[in-house]
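sry for the spam today, last one i promise. struct tokens for design, 138 residues
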């Protein structure tokens, strides 16, 4: 099931690049990121209400909340830099470099979460980096 969700995430992420690039044509990237964030917040609050998930708020402990807040800050910084790069660069190159986050996730997951780092996963990471470079430096 998670693979389907991840593929849907990738599809919608591609829409962010295309729609964002078009929308950034005559607008500041920070303002665009702010507008996008407000739209996302309103949409997610509506979704949470529709799915009746707000009652679960009491299940969120302090440690979980702290990590979620820091994740939100990291996400906001990612979006700020993503839209700044998108404003100034080609959508395909920006998206390719942005997807190098996979490399960082795999390495950090091995370091902090104890996830395995095998020869096969290292080969995959090398191919991801090479693929991104081929797209950026056509």
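last one done:
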């Amino acid at each position: 099931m998670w693979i389907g969700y991840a593929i849907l995430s990738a599809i919608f992420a591609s829409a962010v690049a295309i729609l964002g690039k078009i929308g950034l044509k005559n607008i500041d990237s920070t303002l665009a990121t702010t507008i996008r964030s407000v739209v996302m917040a309103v949409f997610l609050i509506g979704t949470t209400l529709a799915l009746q998930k707000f009652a679960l708020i009491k299940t969120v402990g302090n440690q979980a909340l702290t990590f979620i807040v820091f994740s939100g800050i990291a996400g906001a910084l990612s979006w700020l830099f993503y839209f700044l790069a998108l404003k100034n660069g080609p959508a395909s190159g920006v998206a390719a470099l942005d997807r190098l986050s996979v490399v960082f996730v795999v390495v950090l997951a091995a370091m902090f979460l104890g996830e395995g780092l095998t020869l096969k996963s290292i080969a995959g990471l090398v191919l991801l980096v090479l693929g991104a470079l081929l797209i950026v430096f056509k």
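The mean pLDDT is 95. ok im logging off now
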